[in-house]
## 1
Amino acid sequence: MTALLYVSGALLACLALGWLGRRIAQTTTGNAPRYRDMPLAVAFGYAFSALLLGLGVWFYFQPTATEAGIPRASVMFFRWAVQGFVIFALAAFVFRLAGRHVGPAGSRKMFRNMPLTAAFGILMILIYAVVAIFAGQIAPHGQAEVFNAVNVLPGGNPATGGNPEFPLGTDQIGRDLLSRLIYGAQNTVGIAFITTLLAFFIGGSLGFLAATLQGWLDQLLSRGVDVLMAIPSLIFALLLMTIASAWAGSEKWLLTVYMVIIIAVIDSTRVFRLARAVGLNIVVMDYIEAAKLRGEGLRYLIFDEILPNALAPLLAEFGLRFCFVFLTIASLSFLGVGIQPPLADWGTMVRDLAQFINFAAFSPLTATLPLLAAGAIALLTVAVNFVVDWMLHKSSGLKE
Amino acid sequence: MSRLLTINDLVLEGRSDESWSRIVNGVSLTLDKGEVLGLIGESGAGKSTVGLAAMGFTRDGVRIAGGSVEFDGIDLVNASANTKRNLLGKRIAYVAQSAAASFNPAHRLIDQHTEGPVVHGVMGRGESAEDGIELYRRLRLPNPEEIGFRYPHQVSGGQLQRAMTAMAMSCRPDLIIFDEPTTALDVTTQIEVLAAIRKIVEDFDTAAIYITHDLAVVAQMADRIKVLLKGDEVEEATTREMLDHPQEDYTKSLWAVREFQHAEKPLAPKGAVPVISVRNVTAGYGKIDVLQDVSFDIHEARTVAVVGESGSGKSTTARCITGLLPPRQGQILLDGEALPPDYRKRSKMQLRQVQMIYQMADTALNPRKTIAQIIGRPVQFYLGLRGKEKRRRVNELLEHIELDPAQFAGRLPGELSGGQKQRVGIARALAAEPKFIICDEVTSALDQLVAEGILRLLARLQDELQLSYMFITHDLATVRSIADEVVVMKDGVVVEQGPKTEMFTPPHHAYTDLLLSSVPEMDPDWLDKLLAERGVDNIGDAAVDKM
Amino acid sequence: MTCHVPGVLKIVLQRLALGLVTLFVVSIVIFVAVNALPGDFAQVILGQGATPEAVAAIRRDLALDEPLVTRYVGWLGAILTGDLGTSFAQLNFQSSLGGGEMKTVASQIAPRFANTIFLAGVTAAIAVPVAVALGVLAALYRGSVFDRFTNIFTLSSVSSPEFFLAYMLILFLAVLNPMLPSLSNIYDGMAFSERLRATMLPALTLTLIVLAQMMRMTRAAIINLLASPYIEMARLKGISPMRVIVRHALPNALAPIINVIALNLAYLITGVVVVEVVFVYPGIGQLFVDAVKIRDIPVVQACCLIFAAAYILLNLTADILSILSNPRLRHPK
């Protein structure tokens, strides 16, 4: 109750501050149009953000431990978050700066008009790609290697239960968590990538075929896709995984293959829709009519006339689809029916490490373990989304 | 007369990506009370932007970078949002190009009509509604008492445009900005909207800025004309002076376009086999017949213009000839031999003979292919030329259409201007070495000067290569300049056909007459004469309906 | 008033019929998928250690000796009368121990279904007003700092996995600042306020997920609308910004916003599965995942059908509501 009072009091104060600030600005600038026509809501917004910023700064400089020596985890997490944000922003800024001055003219031009979020996205995707491809070289240990040191705490400091050989500690059966995190990039990202490619191959080719030929084939495929899309994809995936697990029996690797196929098929319905819609938009163009009237065959129409024009929207869709597939696989793994051990993957790691989150109050570092794996997933999807958002914005901006 | 609006050295900038670039470089104009100023220019001249700036309004991504706009002593550039709001709608009103998009689909016409007067406190709701009905009557809308109770999508385009003029008039403003109000309409509809607009502006002695790209239209409407070109002023004069003695080269060139005339050709000899013969074609989509019993011939090296308003079946005829829409009855003959109705059944040789040039060059060229690839494909496909020979032929074709091969062969369509793209479309058709080309509104999306260039090119190619053209168009000026024969269509039926000279001299069929007389001419008195001749009730839709 | 109800009614009825047909075909897909299990169905389901009695019971229960079509008709008929069958887990349990009362799938699902609806309801109650308000604000002040900031925030939130957000919330609202329980302990006869408190964390997680998507879509719909010529016309008539929004934008924005809300509530259905597992929330999603793990086919089938039905229903609602709010369809020519 008191909290509510404080909050409403603060909001009222912001409102008053906003009104006052606008008034002052109006008088000092001689009623410049910028302040004259400013709505009160906007002034309030400025005051409110100033308050939040102030609170953030104040909180950042709180001591990290109480006088009794107990760590104040909230402050530590807040500091990590702010530091992480600043480091990422700086990295993206430097990356964009480098992109503007190094490389071919085309990419330099691209970097010139790029927002920071997109630069961040591209940088992250590059880092993930490198880690995924060279996981074997980067990781200090094997992903399934079991050591004689169980439940080593992270931090690498023997005084707090760590071990310098395992900077992030080990799990219940003694596997190095850092190595598993790195291999996770290879497995989770790699499998998601293959699945998306497969989905695009199936959905894309059928979609273009339907758009070009139309008629009964289009009707058949479209109605089929309608039905498949009427079942929520994660639910459908879980249903089919139940059956696949019976087929796979004790062959765990086979289940992973089935998962790839199942998700690819489910996701190809979405790709089909898009490819068909994009294809239909192109098919009505006069240059397609001209090619048809010239007597061109189906192969030429699809590969030479339609496909080159569909690439841009398809590429953006590829990014979005990849995120979706990646999240579905992570969710399945998190639920225990996705990528199977001994392959290391992030979804399973989150599930296995989840209980450590309850240690946050006395050992903040340990509590970050499940968040690290979950964050690794989130970071990549956020990065891809930033890039896709920029691409879509760019292509829509060109039309104006 | 007292001064109403003064625009001085107005500079407008538009945002592209993150930087601002100029779209209007210092335009000045003045307007007295009750005066009508015509603002004319091609697309991209900045005339709409200037028109909106005269209201103190800029669209998103546009800003006033310099100069002043003064309306009746009020500085609109620096006025507060409140001050401007009190003027807009009440003293300065706006009539947009597309009435269908500019009326809110969720409200009835009369409710949108009364909104301005009520908000500005000029009249009460009831009073304003009655006034609205009166205005509808003056604007000669059918059923003035009831039409206001309809939703915008229930009313036709020409009527909506008049309803919007009535709405602009609802507060009896001092100034109305008309932004291309008849561009989207057919000629017969255009004329009644023009008559209505002019009447109401005269009745209430309202000042107006009339923005358009059509010289003949502006000649009817304006007291004075100002010509803009790419954001710059070209010249300004009273309407008569401008028409009779244009000063600047650019203005003169605009007038000259109308004078192009392709040399008349002798009639085809009796008994000659026509290149294309449309015989009793009936065709349609679904259950509806769009074409009924259409027949006409096109002879070698001659141009047949097919004219009619939207929905008359001109394009459907083209689709029947190309084989995209197999006719239900009737035949298409090529050199006296029947073509298979479906293009998929036609031989490569038959397909080659019939080529097509499209209205929108933007959608007619694949944006991902270079010009050389676009023109090269039919060369390779039909003639089997490859490598060096193909390149040589492509260059030859580019020279034919007056584009420098070295400069253009490697470019993408996006890097070309509208006229250049249309030329590439012509080259692609020529590459097949056809006998017959269908030109579907090929000049209607182009500015006048560019359009004239295209017409000259097509005429030259016809003389050189003995090509036959079928020219689909709604623009009679184009017909006058290039056609040998004319086919007039209405509602899927051929109303009248014959040699051009015959068609353009009376007596005509009633519909041809209506169509011909509805095309505005470059004579400021044309509309008055026409109205005097026919009477107000005998123009536009009303006249069409009577037939 | 020229409101031609029959025309609209016809379209709405058509959509309803289409929805029913889709549901029917979906039931076939689910049935066929399950029947694609390999080898001896009963044996596979129960594993090698199954008692012969259990295997026999399942064969009997599913009428495995009959042809596929007969079995489908029987299954569908039973579902229509509310009989979703008997859980295999129950069967196995009962046959190995003998005796004991059998719980049907329907009786297992019913209370959990109510719980899930409650969770979704709380989520919608928080997410919908906040999302629409924020979306409209972002659209009105597009390009501003506020808009850019919310864009980054919502984009991040949309693309994060559910469990990441869930654990973040647990960390901050349950572990570091113990305000809410991290496990949702729901039981019969709970007071409403208690129940709301226990549901709060999963509801907040789901809110974060759908809020972002809903807000982005609302923003896009409003921006699209504000670019219409009739909005410019209204502004050129000298109408105040507030009135432009309320009178000119809102009536036309209703259809797209309703569409956005319904689509996102449909999206909740997928989100609910993972979130319920994280918080051990006794809803239908958790039941479904448990059934998937032990391959309890009747439960999996039933849950799947319920999820699909809800999904189709929400999409159908979106469709119908946007038809009803379209003036062009309400007032035909």
## 2
Amino acid sequence: MKRQIPLFITFFVGTLLIFSVFIPPMETWGENFTLFFDIIAVFAFFLGAGNLVRVHVGKLKKRKADWGFSIVTLIGFGFMLFVGLLKIGNPGGIAADVTAPGSWFQEMFNYVINPLQSTMYALLAFFVASASYRAFRAKNREATILLIAAFVILLGRTPLGMLLTAWIPDSLSFFQIPNMAVWIMNSFNLAGQRAILIGISLGVVAMSLRLILGVERTYLGGDDNG
Amino acid sequence: MKKTTFILMAIVSALFLLSWILKAGSLSGETDNYILQGFLVTFSAFLTLSVLSFLYADNPLYKFAEHLFVGVSAAFWMCMGFWTTIVQNLIPRLSDGLSKFFEQQPQPGDYNFFFFIPVILGIMLLMRLSPKGGWISRWPLAFIIGTTAGLNFVRYLRSDFIKQISNTFVPLLGTEWQGIGHFFSNLDLSASGQLVAIAANWVIFLGVFCGLIYFYFSKEHKGAFGAASKVGIWVLMLTFGASFGYTVMGRISLLVGRITFLFRDWLEIIS
């Protein structure tokens, strides 16, 4: 029963949502179920947060390696939760948007989350540089094509690209590097992305069917939980 | 703690304090909360530099920033979910009392008994933290999987399969056919010209076709099929190259943003 009921729920909900597309009175069910999904996802956030606290408290108790940084995580988590759930400093009070300008929650986003997030991504620019060295070695025809496309796009998005080819007359403006970059994005890139998207969509449809029909059961986990 | 680490921490703390004092001083004429603002800008710069310090090696400053990011982000998304989904979308449908408490304005017809279902499933999901009742969380998980599968089945068939195929069938002799004479008299190589647009349409049509052939593994890639598959590889390589270039540019612009913050907002070297 511990496995059969979840399988039935997946089958029932999945089939219902597919049929709801074909039956006009059931058309809004998709929206409602999406909202149900969002609500359960919030509980999943609570679950994730609970797990985060459990892991770091455990690390702290057992004095594992780098346990001091667990204190940073717990303080950061606790403080953000405090200012967010109580809307501390929110000029509009409890009725206002949680991200209202001036609220501590928004200030924490602007001065802590945003710099951390964007610097983490910016850090990748340096690692991408070393990856480019490997990728940009024109070892064979395919790698050369990749190199040329990346080079044109990179150059086309900078003022240098425009400067280098600004002398080309308007009747041949296609050969100006920024225009070539746009053309590659709108033709080759579009075609390749579309081929990949069509492949992905077939994969998603097949996987959805496998899940609904109970062929794919790995999400239920092992038998150790019953 | 090693002696060198201790000295390093002391230097960083002293620099932080110095920066805070200087920043607060420079903001004193501009804002009332200049001490807090000075702290926030300094802390933000400290976090930026801490993350960038990873370029040298993994170090305590980076670990501090990393652990802070994990904690703060988890709480951020939890609060966003609570206020935007639970308070705005769930509570008005379930309880007038709670709606009044959170100062929400329920619309007529908002009350919906069925919205107790996701609440019950959500509570069941939290049972995953219990060592013995973990299996109960499979029910909401099954609901999530069923919803995702049901919605994605239709959504992907519509938007990523049928629509993408439909959009691939583009006019191969220009969008507005005005006769053969007009066609040949307008073939120039300007970026907005007819020839360039036609070439793009040919590339889209053949590129998708050849790309799909490359992904078809049930037939050996030999002869004409193999040649089309080869063209498919080239199209995909161009796609990956373009995506790579685009990603690099995105990362560089983020880096420029952070450097601008450091030099303009923190150090005030540039205006």
## 3
Amino acid sequence: MRSFASNNQPEQEFKTRHAEIMAPAGSRASFHAALQGGADSIYFGIEQLNMRARASNNFAMEDLPEISALAQDHGVKTYLTLNTVLYDHDLPLMRKIIDAVKEHGITAIIASDQAAISYAFKQGVDVHISTQANISNIEMVEFYSHFADVMVLARELSLGQVKKIVEGIKERNITGPSGELVQIEVFAHGALCMAVSGKCYLSLHTYNSSANRGACKQNCRHAYKVDNDEGIELEIDNEYIMSPKDLCTIDFLDQVLDSGATVLKIEGRGRSPEYVQTATRCYKEAALSVANGTYTPEKALQWKNELEQVYNRGFWDGYYLGRKVGEWSPVYGSAAKKEKTFVGKVIHYYPKAKVSHIQMKAREISKGDTLLVIGDRTGVVEQVIQSLWVDDKPAQKAVKGEECTIKMDEPVRDGDNVYLWKDRA
Amino acid sequence: MMRIIFYRNKCIGCNYCVEVWPERWQMSKRDGKCVLVGGKKKGQVYRADFGEHERDQNEKAADVCPVDVIRVEG
């Protein structure tokens, strides 16, 4: 990937370019949602050798040509995650995946295991170093620069540390295999882990289910009480003592970009399409606005409000601003302000009339309600019900068991799921 | 007679079942997922019958599987 300024390019040109927004896709619908949100690049996993082997509806090897073609049509880069711990028996599949990445023109792999890094390098496949590698200092950057042009820094670093590493890259002229300066990527938004760079063994110890093989059972997200060997319970402020809030940098994105990071990663391959679309769009708009000098605290607040509507565990600023201790989520699951509830399926979409015919399978919908229509090729379409017909007659509402027709502003597709999108009770 | 049901498409290749009962579970070098020795394929699911002498090992394999793709019936 070469979308940003190298040391050879004029400073002015660098300033007018916005950072790359890298969006997650754990499903086809999320992939389309990322495109709708304006992602510059999309990362995804296939088969079982990725860190969301359990959580996501992962893609398969045979999906690569379709993914690659779709991304190229939209001018978007694609990164394939191949970042679990690898055992000897995984090596043939690892090689097969990298060969397929090369064959189908996927932009790069994201890896941490040296076996994958080494094989991709030999095959001429670009490598991005994964957060699992826990890059926390300039020497590590220099070490990995023999294999990779882009690397993500550990989420536990402060922005001061990130900035120092970027300056070190320029001072030492640390270049990747392409001959250009190494680019630094940082996590901008999404879940954080209680363990350093996700290197956690809780799930393995308790459920035999290794987080480092993409099978995390998320023990940390539950409520815990602390007692000692005499059965005395310790008083603690919050039972969710191991569940960090989500990282959100939108209200200090100018400082994040001032560190010199050029790629902003949004976490969430296990999250829903509407999360992917909203987070991608907000960060894209914010990064553009930082680049063209129109970023303001008021705008940041508006984006943050939008981010609060979709899945989140409450927000904090991570470790970037140099906090002593973390902030822990007060809730199990999401603190999103909105929620979606399944109500039916699109039986048919009539493109000329721009209406969708919907089979109501649960609950009811009324004029004025907001719907989300989500599908593998549709991504996420939000629609306020302006006009509604039941049995070809204008109606105020449609209930379970009925078929109804709704005017759409954007096209949807047969078989898409329809949800009611409303404030959480 | 008891039966193992193995939902192979969801296997993540962690190798635990191979560790506990290698006579029945082997690792495929082709795709890095487990192979149920003697299993018959129907759709995405593999099934194999086995005798009482294998009960403990197969139940242990099912127990240690982190993604619950091994079921033991009977």
